[in-house]
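Hi support team,

I submitted a single chain yesterday and got back a structure, but I'm not sure I'm reading the token output correctly. Could someone confirm the output below corresponds to the sequence I sent? I've pasted both exactly as they appear in my results page.

Thanks,
R.
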Amino acid sequence: MQRKLIYIVFLTIFLTSGSVKIYSQELPNNGTSFPPKKETSTTEINANDLVKVVDSSQGDTATTKKPLLEGKIKRKAVDFEKLDQKKKIITLYNKAEVYYQDMELKSGIIVIDYEKNEVYAGRIKDSTGKYTQLPVFKQGNNVVEPDSIRFNLKTKKALVWNSRTEQGEFRVKAEITKKENDSVYFMKKARFTTSTDVDNPEYYFVADKVKFVPGKKVVVGFTNMVIADVPTPLALPFAFFPMTEKARSGLIIPSYNDSNTRGFSLQNGGYYFALSDHYDLAVLGDYFTNGSYALRFESSYAKRYKFSGNFNVRFENIIQSERGYPDYSRANNYNIQWTHTKDGKSNPNSRFSASVNLGSSKFFRQSLNQVNIGSTLNNSFNSTISYSKTFNSVPQVNLTLAATHTQNTNTEQINMTLPTLQLSVDRIFPFAPKDGIKKGFFKNINLQYNLRGENRIATYDSLFFKPQMFRDAKVGFQHSVPLSTNFKIFKYFSASTAVNYNEVWYLKTIKRTYDPTANQVVDTDVQGFDAFRTYSFSAGLGTTVYGTFNFGENKKIKAIRHVMRPNITYSYTPSFEKYYDTYDPDGSGTMLKEYSRFEGGIFGAPGKNMSNNIGFNLSNTFEAKVTDKDSTKLEPKKVMLLNNLNFSTSYDITADSLRWSPLRVSGGTQIFKQKMNINFAATLDPYAINNSGQRIDTWNIDNGGSLFRMTSANMTLNYTFSSKDTEGKEKKNTQGERNGGREDDLFGTNTDLSDRRQSQFAEDDEGKENAVSEFFKYNLPFDLTLAYSLTYSNNRREQEIVGNSVMISMNTDITPKWKIGVSTGYDFVQKGVTFTQLRFERDLLSWRMDFNWVPFGDNAYWGFFIGIKSGVLSDIKWDKRSLPDRTLR
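Hi R., thanks for writing in. Yes, this is the structure output for that exact sequence:
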């Protein structure tokens, strides 16, 4: 509104001058007005014609002034455009419109009094007596919709009745608005709300006196909160609301809570720093009366077309009970998260990305401010920071530097690489022609060069980033040069051969000796460069066989197509005994054992035994053609019966016994419109076992058994179903996955206690407008996720079901505004209910209310929240919860 009325000033001057110039010679002297027009009247005037109107009584004494406006202005009205020279008034009636540059004014009636220097725009009545065509003034992205406007051209002051405007997330309506100048407005009986319907909001703040600076701030006197037109006891003697599209620094109000083991608390309070348009920082903290406290630093950054990311650091000093009591304990936990994404368009040949989640292994299990069951039950953290660059040479060279981190939260073991270097040179075809197809054995001969170097660290939580962690680091480099080719045999068989050369460099090896003092074998580190070299040969032969079984055109199942892909491989690796030494295991000198000084290295040690294997693999797919239910379809419908059915085994030529490896069978399919995934696998051993459970060189069928002995089997089933077609739009718990949990909600939804405004359910805006008027949907929207797992073990004839569990998660709308959800499961082996979570949520338009409940288990808790969705008023809420009273271990 701050600049809109200024354009009305220019508009009024133009309409006054321009209209008089056009009609002054045509109107009779008695001032008779124009008769109403039925067609739409449109006038277009060039700014060059906007000169001062010359009065006929003054002759040629008038002086010409410069044009008042730049460009062209258009105006129109459906009923009439009327000029009254006696009263000096111009009237546009019914759908009056005025356009100038990026400004437009629409209203039922627009009246311009060029004697009093005033302009008026207001509503008109329709045939039923209802006011319609409220004034709408647009300039750029700003819109003002009052009942009427009165503006003085000379003083540039204005009165606006029932003005409606949007400033950021706020919607403002005032009975009377007085404009003092271009940047200050005073309002009387103003309403402020984030509701979409400013005329009938479900809640609002009402103030008798308001000072409004558009785009900057609103300062109000006594303010009262009204819910459903009922005044509440919530009131403020004065208030300040920032009105800006840019982020502003400010306090973050904490929430109050209590805990049985830590006392009363203030949580999630702090300060938000709006540092710039590209990055920000929020500093948050918690404090408990027993001395526990937490600090969190959260920052987001972005630069358009360059990169974006966020960085979170959390530290918690957790005290349980009181000092002197037997259950007193104390723990310091931390967690660091960093996500960085580089826009690929900024530099296609250079890429940098980061996904970091590391910290104390017990952070999510003991956190004061996280209820993330998926992260609690998960037992690993993973991090990757990588930089890669492509050199567009011939051949092309790719370079990658990466740092990785893997952490087991149960064992508290940490494995890191700081860094990992990978360098690869693209394939080179030395015998291929420069132009033409590479065909045949010689033309397809190609070679590559790959280099991988690692500085690998294995440590524990207690030693993380301490000197011992770096002393135990292992460094190694692996060079590999694969030389391969492929060609056709008898037209239908594809053959391939490869020779692989590997060279490994270590900066530290071992020397194994017997220590008579300790009476044990010890390994001593030997510092210095050492290397070993290995090579191997492999070959493969495969083909594809197609088969179709036709059942007839009149059958429901017209045909079944079977595709087989048999493949035979051969691999040979010689013995590298020269890299092996001997040691005396007991100091007697009567028995020597062999070892390799490269044992324990990053890339392992060279093999002592020769390997000479033949591998067999057969993959199958089955597809059916069935009659489509849609009679208009001319072609039969294709249905996948089995996506894959694989058989694999191998035969060791040089082994003296047990030459055949177990037969591995695996397969999978998708049914119910590819919403249910079924995967299965089994291991079949042709050899028998003795009484101690060890494999013996006797066929199982010769030992009184069947042809194969099933040693293990497993089956998994995953089913995702929704009442709506959500193919390709899977619901994902992105925050839970980032914290180390699952991407689905089988372990419940993630609850970040620092911000409860987000819904627990997947947002779906489709049909919301229609749902408001419905009391109950006959078509209940819902989504269902089901996971089932079965594992069988028979390695030693135990014939046990070692795993048998089902997990389910379901969300549904019982009314247009009520949502409920449940995540639960059952373990049939342990005979108990797995993690269970119940979710309830009510959409209150501008507000949201939810209840989250875990009724039993180590993570039992409940939480209730009701608050305003808008971030501007996020501190207006009631958040009550009972966190798990976790025991620090």
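A quick pointer for reading it: Residues 182-244 form one domain. Let us know if anything else looks off.

Best,
Support desk
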